[in-house]
Fold this sequence. Notes:
Chain A is built from 16 helices and five strands. Chain A is mainly alpha-helical and 337 residues long.
Amino acid sequence: MQPERLPLSKFFNAPFLSLDQTSVEMASLLVLFLVVILIARVQSHRQAIRRGVQVVSVFVFFYVVYSCLGVFGMIRNGLYGLTLIGTVYTESFYWMALPVVVLSATLVCGPVFCGWICPTGTVQEWAALLRKRISKNPSKPSRLQILLLGLFFAGFLALVISISLEKQMFVEDSSLHWAAALILLVYLVLAGAIDDAPTRSLRGLSVVAIFVTAVSHLIVTSPVHFAFTSRSDPASATATLVIVVASLFVMRAWCRYLCPWGWLMGFAHRFSRVRIVRDPARCNDCKTCERSCDVGAIVHGDVRTEHCQFCYACVDSCPSHAFKVVDVWPGKTEEKP
Amino acid sequence: MSAGLAIAVVLLAGLEASAPDWPQLRRDAQNTGSIELDAPKSPRPRPWSFDGSGRVWGYEPGMVVWTSAALGVVEGKAIVAVGSYDRLVYVLDASTGELVWKVATGGPISSAPVLWNDGASSVLFAASSDRLVYAFAAATGKSLWVHSVEEYRPTLGGARLSSPCVGQAGGRDALFVGHWVWDRSLGHTLQRGGVTALDARDGKPLWTRELGDNEITSPLFARLPSGSRLFVGSSNGNLYCLDADSGSLLWQKTELDAVRSPPALLSLTPPLVVTASKFGMVRGLNAETGAEVWSFKTGDRVTGSPMAMPDGRVVIGSYDGRLYALDGSTGKLSWSYAARGGIYSSAAFVPSSPALVLAAAWDHSLHAVAAADGAHRFTTYTGAPLWSVGGLDDSNWASPSAARIQDTWMVFLGSYDGTLRALPLDERDLRAPPIRSNLWFWVSFPIALAPVAAVALLLTRRNRRRRP
Lengths: 337, 468
């Protein structure tokens, strides 16, 4: 039997006609958030479960998401949706629904989108896992490794040149610019020319760049664009490869230096209900938490809210159980395990 | 080539010669997009262009600047008819580009007009996004009749009408047009797609067939041994075969993504329709039953129509940047040609000697290749889009149309840069300038990277100064 012949199908379908595929995106995102909120409370094997959720979300992003949930698209669409308020409400809802849901979820349960769901974060985390396995001191690459990064950069340039010989390049290929900027930053950090902590403010610059391009109707493609789009996009596939390789040298390099959505999530996290805090009385200053944090959000035992991705790695790895998830909204002092 | 196919091709060629008008989107059921015109009063054609860019303001998905062109003869002169986003239907002298007449409709036009000779004079049919189908006298632009596919109401969001297609329904000359109307107000949420048959002489409706709630492609009218058939695709992924006499649905083939252009008919035994979709699959289907005979996967979405060459091969362009020629009876690849951008248009077949295939691609160029082996003949730059916004490939941009006027083959292409171009296809085109370089792309790299590095260095210096 065809779905449209089912009883009342028109009744249920009609409100969603203009929402189109976004309703599917929205449903899958809500399910992911629900799963995360429920599972994040489970303490045993939490990190293994988190990796499982990440695998599922990568599949969801590849096969369900069309465009609206891209980290660039969410900012652009949110802005566009704002301009439609007061004229076309259904369309305004269409464009704003996803960013509003992600930001609201951040206010309620922390930036779990970054730590549990975001596929770009996931592929970087896989690269970081590999790095931790092959290197004794993941934070300091050897000269040989830096040389390998140089060779990779040369290969990246050669690939871009070969693409540009066969294909007309457009503004849409701007994912390559992001990739080149990331390689440049990673190189400068490894060379000691710039420091990790202040460079993270560049994420704010990314937000400005997306904002400016959105209001001036220019396309800026995200480096993982190829996963959402139905057209062939070798440029952004190359850019994704660059992100993965950069994360081998600086863990979650994209999240640290360039992700505009990461900046917004960090901003929202400042006002969120929950936050991870350290109990100084229990802490024995072993620095296990700092080593476990992929984004380097823990400085001298304190969690920096603007960088924390709520992956619970510090909570789970601390031998003296010094980290707790605390509800900080006024009038509530309940502690979560 | 089998004997049956040879006979069919000869018959087909005979039929084409006796039909000097342009009754459907790509002129015939084979989508050749070309015509030989007998226009004794036309001057010798010269290259010309007609700039419409100043009359187009913003982009919205589905819009096109110029529609594909239809060519015909009026009072001994060759004319080209095109619709535009500026709401006007233009009829220009095909040899010189001089305006013959233009007429305003109530909305932007995104589907090509067609020309039909009713025995006494030439009639131009155009469909506009004001929900109306228009019939004009091709010589003067005088309105003959108008038909509305949907009653007006204030909350109606808009309409997208397909190119009209002239055929026969129940023994009458009929005009078939696909419609898609929507109303996104909260009270009347509605989307409706379908096909309407009108009497071509007075615009009276003959039948209407609703086909789901998605955009409908231009219909393809074809006469099969079992009767007259209408093939229409839909953005819901279906190719529908309708009985042209009654509008009843005979079969439908469900594809995995939107069908954006009408199929092509291949006169084999049994006859095949070749269809393609945004899924990128090209399929040869038995035109009588819809059963799949062969399939061929291209590397990316297909938005143009397949085109059947007289030798039985099918040519189709894909967004993977390639133009494919496939054997019509088996679907096996005969040749392929690589452009530097996705091919968005349907191909046109020019039976010059040697025969050429023309197609327009996202490298902003019109490509001409030899029909025999796909060898590159020439590439002409046709201009960058007027906008650089996302989703430009949601539009079915114009496909090239060709006509022989005074023994010179001319190609007509309205590009997304706002200009309608007419170019003679002769040896000079082989020396056409090379396509645009990627220089700006390379220059933009240092422009983007320099501020990133500078800001990172500044932030670091400030931070180190604070905490020495």
